[in-house]
Amino acid sequence: MMRLKRFYSSNPLPLRNRYRLLRNFTAISLGGFVITTGLLSLFYRQQAVRNLVISTEESNVALTQVFANTLWPEYGSFLSSTGHLTPEALAASDEIRQLKQTVVMQVEGLSVAKVKFYDLKGRTAFSTEASQIGYYKDISAGLLRALEGKPTSQIGHRDTFESLQDNTLTDRDLLASYVPIFSKKNASRVVGVAEIYTDVTPALMRLNKTQYDSLLVSLLLTVLYGILIVFVRRAEEQLNDQYRQVQSSEGRYRQQTHELEKVLADLKRTQAHMLQSEKMSSLGSMVAGVAHEINNPINFVHANVEHVMTYMQELLGFLSLYETHYPNPHEEIRAQADALEIDFVKKDLEDTLTSMEIGTTRIQDIVLSLRNFSRLDESNQKRVNVHEGIESTLMILQHQLKVQGKYPAILVSRDYDDLPLVECYPGQLNQVFMHILSNSIDALRGRFDTDETVQENPQITIRTQVADGSVVLSFADNGCGFSDSVQSRLFDPFFTTKDVGEGTGMGLAISYQIVSEQHHGKINCFSEAAAGTEFVIEIPVSV
Asked: Does the structure show a pLDDT above 90 at 461?
């Protein structure tokens, strides 16, 4: 410090030159800041819009796949052969009215504004806007790419727009996606094209507001830079003080760097959480659709089995009455009865119908579990039975609990208390159950891989109880467990003990966030290496 002072005092610069140096530096840095801020703002908007297009297009492709699975088997042949119908006749057909009701029901709750189906000649075979049905679409680049099997999307602005709810929208930004519909028999053959309009106005408004706020901040900082130039003259007199302040500020800067690193980690976690939630929401929508389609026919079969059993018992009673009053039937009737083994048929018919009734009941239970689990996209709090969520998750994972190759079956032991209804986000809570039970299954498989001589049967024990206004849920397994070092990082984002490609390290981190932040509860892990693991969740009954 003394050497610096001596050098500075022996080589003084004129005050004007020193001032110009700092002034020029400040002006150049101001210009660089303004330009950089503008470029970054423009780049951020372009990236944000691009990500919005990609994510919305992925959602539209998934929705089109749902249409292909649920609607095309019933309406595909009709939509592909409408050339003989006039636009008016096509729009007035019963198939179009039924199809519109089904489409509106399936996109309920989504930001979809319009749905159209084209045949391979570019004719609008179906549209939620009736006035467009039956007319040929101008061959656009998006439609051509879709006919070639490649989805494409583009954002456009509409002053007025007729939505699928038959109301007029004004001043909207819409993303139009052309998505090919492939044949189930030949996955590379396009049988039609779906055009889905998604209302992205709220998302673009948020982007515009963010960009506007950043411009305001830039303007404010520009004003501050201008004020800085005014006070440059005093900067020369305060250089030594600033140097000492820099030294004293080193610790503060380190703290700010640490805080910025923490913010960056939180942003990464939030991004991964949003991506995971979007995937689970799409999965929930698809599962709900499948469960709905299965539910009606299986209820029909199950209800008719009861009638068949009644009719069978009445016919067998009538046959028994006939045998009582006519114990000596004709020789031909006796021969036919022996050939049919009528006694065996009477007994086996009853067993067969009983088996059918048990099977349909089982399918109904599975469908109910799928419908309960599909509540992943519910965003409102509800009072629900937590046991139903656990059982639905176990039903989804049932195939992993059975014997698989070298792995033995996993026994699930339940010790349920009489729990009250819990006010929670049921879809998010099901997601927590899925992550914890999947980890328990992986731990049990991992123990068998590392020690094939283990004699203890793999088991998951689930206990529930009420304590101090909260429900306590315990999930324990006798798997491989964790060491203390792993246990301390178990809920950290992106931390995983699995091999590359087998896990993202976000399951337990997301579960921790859902329990602690969304439900104001607690989640803890107790584990010992080679001695099993227990996850304990505590959630208030009422938030």
From this structure: yes
pLDDT the model gives residue 453: 66
User: H/E/C letters for each residue in 140-167?
Assistant: CHHHHHHHCCCCEEEEEEEEEEECCCCC
Q: Are strands 459-467 and 411-415 parallel, antiparallel or unpaired?
A: parallel
Reported as a pLDDT band with limits 50, 70 and 90, residue 202 is confident
pLDDT, residue 372, reads: 61
What is the biggest distance separating any 2 CA atoms in the chain, rounded to whole angstroms? 139
What is the reported pTM?
A: 0.39
Considering the chain, what is the average pLDDT of its residues?
A: 77
Which pair of tokens denotes residue 284? 């929930």
Burial class (CB in 10 A: 0-12, 13-18, 19+), 3: exposed
Here the tokens at position 154 are 């583009």
Tell me, rounded to whole angstroms, the distance of Cα 315 from its chain centroid: 53
E runs forming strands in 11-167:
112-118, 124-127, 152-162
Q: Are 101 and 115 in contact (CB under 8 A)?
A: no
Mean predicted confidence (pLDDT) in 318-335: 76
Q: Which residue has the tokens 């019933």?
A: 74
Whole-angstrom Cα distance, residue 21 to residue 132? 68
User: Are β-strands 124-127 and 411-415 bridged in parallel, bridged antiparallel, or unpaired?
Assistant: unpaired
Residue 206 to residue 420: CA distance in whole angstroms: 40
Structure tokens at 212: 């506007």
Rounded to whole angstroms, the Cα distance separating 58 from 370 reads 23
What single-letter DSSP state applies at residue 407? Answer: B
DSSP string computed for 213-232:
HHHHHHHHHHHHHHHHHHTH
Q: Are 156 and 174 in contact (CB under 8 A)?
A: yes
SS3 326: coil
In the predicted structure, residue 375 carries a pLDDT above the cut 60: no
Tokens, residue 204? 């673009």
Radius of gyration of the chain (CA): 34
| Beta-ladder partners of 112 | 198
Let me know: does 317 contact 386? Beta carbons within 8 Å: no
